[in-house]
Write a structure and sequence with these properties.
mainly alpha, Arc Repressor Mutant, subunit A, 2 domains, two-stranded antiparallel ribbon, 7 helices, 45% helix
Length: 166
């Protein structure tokens, strides 16, 4: 049974409120950055906003999982930048291509469940990242979430893709 917001301990509610405030601050900060341009480090952003890097880093990871930015901080350090609305995250391209090809070839047939755990593991994606990676497939109506699917809740192939004409 899940706990409602009102039933949470004050410390947990305060944490969630603070996290939401940091998320809003970072979104405002990032809105000033050009699309595709390198982002400052989490430490620099934290200093600019008067926050701790410990508050900023996890929220940048969340924004990456939501597909708003590409964040390569921490152990994955590298180039971080802001994505345009609808722009595909570079970590999602291979999974998207693989699923499209397998649907087009008939490997994943209409009505079949998508092997989400296997795919997430193969492409090194956490659950929120996997959801982000499937957005285009869902938007193109190749797959859909079915709460009452024949194999339980999950993503299912809803129509076959047309093979590419050469």
């Amino acid at each position: 049974m899940s706990t409602t917001y009102d039933e949470m301990p004050d410390t947990q509610r305060e944490y969630l409120q603070r996290r939401a405030a940091v998320l809003d601050l970072l979104r405002q900060y990032l809105a000033q950055c050009e699309f595709g341009a390198d982002l400052p480090t989490a430490v620099s952003m934290a200093m600019d906003l008067g926050l701790s890097a410990g508050e900023v880093g996890p929220v940048l990871t969340q924004l990456d999982a939501l597909g708003e930015i590409v964040y390569r901080g921490g152990p994955r350090a590298g180039r971080s930048y802001r994505l345009r609305r609808g722009e595909q995250h570079p970590d999602d391209v291979a999974l998207d291509r693989d699923v499209r090809e397998k649907i087009a070839s008939g490997h994943y047939r209409q009505g079949a469940p998508l092997p989400t755990g296997i795919l997430a593991d193969r492409y090194g994606l956490m659950p929120l990242q996997f959801r982000r990676a499937c957005r285009r497939l869902i938007a193109d109506r190749l797959i859909a979430h079915d709460e009452n699917g024949p194999y339980g809740p999950g993503l299912y192939v809803v129509r076959q893709a047309r093979p590419k004409a050469f």
